[in-house]
Each structure stands twice: as C-alpha cells, then as structure tokens.
C-alpha cells in the first residue's frame, strides 16, 4: 500500500511523499509568491519596446535585443554576462559545478546557487544551462534599472529564468527587479522563479545522491540484482535490508545511491535518507499523487 500523501495549501506547501524518480526541480525548491505585488511600479505602457532591452554576450561581442526577440536568439555560443572573482574578504562562495546533463562546468556565486545546479541536474530533462545569462534593462519608478538573472535553464518542459535569493536578504529593489524579470519571462513564454531555499531534507538528500551521479561500471552485476530484488518484493524495501541482501553491503549501498540519482528506483525525498528509508520500484509509484 502506498503511504498517505500529506499536502498543505499554498505555493510552498509541504508535499509528502515527494517521489525522487518523478519530481521536478521546482517541486524541491521554496519559491517566492509575492513578486507580482511590484508589477504596478513597472513602466509597462506604450513605448516600452524602446525602454526594455536584454543584452547578451557571445564570442563575437555584445548582442542587444528587444524583449520580445529574446526567444529567437540561439543560446548556443552564448556566454555569461558577467564573470566573478575570488577575494579573501568576500562573504559569498563562488565556484564551478560540473553538470552531468550538459557535460560542462557552470558558474555559481553562492552555495545556494550550487544547490540549484545540483537540483536541476538531478531532476532530469535539462538540455542547456547558462549562468548570468543576460542583462535586463527596464524602466520603473521613472528611471532606468538593470538586473542580471542568475540562470537560464532550458529543459524538456520549457525555458526557466531563475534567481536565487534568500528571503531574509531581499529588499524592495530586489522585488522590483524580480517583477521586471518575471514580466519578460511571461511575455516570451518562459517561466520564472525566485528560489529562497529548499523543502525539508531535500538539500541533504540530494547531497548524498550527488556523490554517485556519474556513470559507473558494474563488474559484480549488482545493478540488475538490486533492481530485481525490489521488483520481486512487489513493494518497498528498507535501504539497509536491500543492501544487506546483496551479500556485498558496502558496494550495494553505493550502487543503490547511483540508481536513485538516475531515477531507476525511488524514495520519498521529503524524509531523511537513511537505513530505514523505503526504496520503491518505480513502476509501483508512477502516476501516484
């Protein structure tokens, strides 16, 4: 029998179970829901086309495009609008994260941004990714303003423009920039989100699964053995029980984590991943809500 789903209303509802094999990255994140409250301060009237632009960097220089032309720009060959540097006194922690889906390293400017890259990679369907993709120039409150979003993610489900910003460090100017970026995304048929954190246990669980995301050899044939054991059980099996049944527990643990990352088995990410975690065959939870 499936565990009971507990849900609470609202955009940042706690959802359980949160199946690892089918969740989208946006289901793992906590996102802001109050961005539209600042739209009334944006200059959205006639003539906006000349005041609102996006600027992109390529190997050949800068490209300035009207907002409505953004969706026709080829993303191949685009470069981050800005780069970053390391200083001994800086408070944030930038770096480069290797993303399996793209086969490249992508820049991040904080640990929260790094966690987003891991979530995008884990959730599947990621086709292309660009850090600090463009400079948006827009008019609000009678003057020209600018904003550089953190990421542009191209997925099988569409384009996402994403900002990562802790709620307790967001001021009114930030909300205005977010509202302008959301307006642009909506106009070109993209989606927009401001990530402020992660649902309970998600960051820790993804950190564990991340350790075994890369391709691996299987000379002992543990992958088919473990998959068969879960299928034969006809229901969930405790993580430790499944590993011990293999006869090579230490190796089986690593293989199980690999299978969970690649969505060939499933667990509830809304609960801590531990020895007692129930590992499900994917077929048993497909379509379950």
Structure notes:
- This protein has 9 helices and 16 strands.
- It starts with 5 loop residues before the first strand and ends with a helix.
- The longest helix has 16 residues.
- Helix 3 packs across helix 5, helix 5 packs across helix 8 and helix 7 crosses helix 8.
- The chain folds into 2 domains: 98 residues, no CATH class; 174 residues, Trna Endonuclease, Chain: A, domain 1, CATH 3.40.1350.
- Helix content is 28%, strand content 26%.
- Helix 4 links the parallel strand 12 and strand 13.
- It is of the alpha+beta class and 289 residues long.
- It is elongated, with a radius of gyration of 21 Å.
- The strands form 5 sheets. Strands 3-13-12-11-8 form a 5-stranded mixed β-sheet. Strands 5-4-9-10 form a 4-stranded antiparallel β-sheet. The chain has a 3-stranded antiparallel β-sheet with strand order 14-16-15.
Blueprint of the fold:
Layout: E1 6-7, E2 15-16, H1 25-28, E3 29-31, H2 48-51, E4 53-58, E5 61-66, E6 95-99, E7 104-108, H3 111-123, E8 126-131, E9 135-140, E10 143-147, E11 151-155, E12 158-164, H4 172-187, E13 191-198, H5 202-210, H6 222-233, E14 237-238, H7 239-245, H8 249-261, E15 265-266, E16 278-281, H9 282-285
Parallel strand pairs: 12-13
Antiparallel strand pairs: 1-2, 3-13, 4-5, 4-9, 6-7, 8-11, 9-10, 11-12, 14-16, 15-16
């Amino acid at each position: 029998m499936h565990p009971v789903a507990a849900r609470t209303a609202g955009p940042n509802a706690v959802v359980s179970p949160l199946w690892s094999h089918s969740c989208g990255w946006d289901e793992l994140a906590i996102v802001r829901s109050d961005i539209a409250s600042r739209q009334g301060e944006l200059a959205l009237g006639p003539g906006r086309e000349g005041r609102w632009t996006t600027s992109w960097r390529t190997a050949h220089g800068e490209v300035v495009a009207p907002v409505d032309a953004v969706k026709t720009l080829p993303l191949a060959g685009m470069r981050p609008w800005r780069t970053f540097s390391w200083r001994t006194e800086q408070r944030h922690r930038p770096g480069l994260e290797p993303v399996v889906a793209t086969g490249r390293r992508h820049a991040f400017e904080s640990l929260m941004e790094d966690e987003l890259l891991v979530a995008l990679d884990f959730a599947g369907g990621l086709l292309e990714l660009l850090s600090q993709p463009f400079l948006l120039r827009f008019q609000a409150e009678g003057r020209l303003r600018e904003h550089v979003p953190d990421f542009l993610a191209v997925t099988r489900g569409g384009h996402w423009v994403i900002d990562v910003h802790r709620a307790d460090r967001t001021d009114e100017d930030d909300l205005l920039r977010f509202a302008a970026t959301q307006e642009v995304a909506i106009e070109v048929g993209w989606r927009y989100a401001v990530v402020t954190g992660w649902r309970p246990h998600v960051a820790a669980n993804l950190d564990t699964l991340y350790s075994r995301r890369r391709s691996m050899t299987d000379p002992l044939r543990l992958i088919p053995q473990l998959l068969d054991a879960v299928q034969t059980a006809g229901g969930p099996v405790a993580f430790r029980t499944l590993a011990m049944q293999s006869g090579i527990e230490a190796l089986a643990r690593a293989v199980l984590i690999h299978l969970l990352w690649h969505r060939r088995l499933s667990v509830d990410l809304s609960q801590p991943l531990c020895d007692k975690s129930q590992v499900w065959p994917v077929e048993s939870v497909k379509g379950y809500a």
